[in-house]
Amino acid sequence: MTVRAVPAVTRAVAILRLLGRHKTPLGMKAISQALGLVPSTSLHILRVLVAEELVKVDTAKQYSLGMGALSLARTALDNSDFPTLVQPHIDALSRRYPVTAIGVELPNLEHMIVVALSQTQAPVRLHVDIGSRFPALISATGRCVAAFSGQPQVEIDKRFRALRWHNAPTYAAWRKEVETARRQGFSIDRGNYIAGVTVVAVPVLNVAGTIAQTIVSVGISSQLDRAASVALAHDMQDAARAVETQLG
Fold first, then answer.
1. CA of residue 44 relative to chain centroid, distance
2. What are the extents of the domains in the chain?
3. Do the Cβ atoms of 100 and 94 come closer than 8 Å?
4. 108 phi and psi angles, rounded to 5 deg
5. Which fold has domain 80-247?
6. Is 7-72 CATH 1.10.3130.10?
7. Distance between CA 174 and CA 156 in Å, rounded?
8. pTM for this one?
9. How far is CA 213 from the centre of its chain?
10. Are 217 and 232 in contact, with CB atoms under 8 Å apart?
11. How far is CA 91 from each of CA 88, 102, 116, 122, 148, rounded to the nearest angstrom?
12. Block mean pLDDT (10 aa), the chain, length 248
């Protein structure tokens, strides 16, 4: 289905995402420059977003996300069964292994979104936030997406070539890893995406047998050897099957 672009909506969403990526407020000039917008256009859109409480502005005319955005995010999470169902499983994983365990939604081939999170108690751990977005085809989850999404290969290939890795696999090697993920039902990324970090991903499949979500575990490679990674993947598969059953 072809979606006709609505410039004002597209720009408003771009502004919200830009503000969401920054920990500190931004001025209208900085927003306009970052997005390539005419300042007057940015100002008109920002005024509407402020009026709708999706954006707030301080006395110095610096803009940041408003509480209305948080309300929408909470509503989206509350209306999804997956975060609630996956939480006890990822809690169990982060207690048993030195990993941060994550529940991820996969709305499309563009990005994945963290919707559930359980931090490890290990002294060294990686920081992830609820709502964090990553390219859908990156790392271990990306191999699962390529294996189980049912999307046209030409679309997957195009997006793969735009990815940024610390130690990027060749396309041929990546395709082999995708086939391995399809065969064994999980994927392990050891240092390709981030140096010194191991990422394990298991698909959560819908009734059509295509990927809808993933369970992901992220740990320091020195704390998670190959044997432990495989054992972790098998436990994650058990969790994914349980969640699939609960989702119906």
1. 30
2. 7-72, 80-247
3. yes
4. -165, -170
5. Beta-Lactamase (3.30.450)
6. no
7. 12
8. 0.71
9. 10
10. yes
11. 5, 9, 10, 14, 25
12. 70 87 88 92 92 90 83 61 93 94 90 90 69 90 94 90 92 95 96 94 93 94 93 97 91
